[in-house]
Structure prediction request, 82 residues.
Amino acid sequence: MEKAFATNAFIESYDSESSTMKPSRFTNEQKTKIVQQLNAGTPLLTLCCENKISASTIYIWRKFQRQQQAELDPPATDPMRR
Prediction:
């Protein structure tokens, strides 16, 4: 019963308008460098240990970088289609 009270007190004291996101520990350049190291063949476990981040974080960064690159690249045109 005491836990429910503590949870309710937390919810009531939380004000979503005044909360802000925590700044990232890594700059975009650092994220890009880590993903480039992964693509170059550096073992994932090594990157995780050196940078103290999870494998899923690196894969998320790689996914977003691929999406950004796809947005920047013009769509490939097929010469057979007109």
Q: What stands out?
A: The mean pLDDT is 81. The helical segments are 2-13, 28-39, 44-51, 55-72. The two ends are 70 Å apart (CA to CA). Residues 26-71 form one domain.
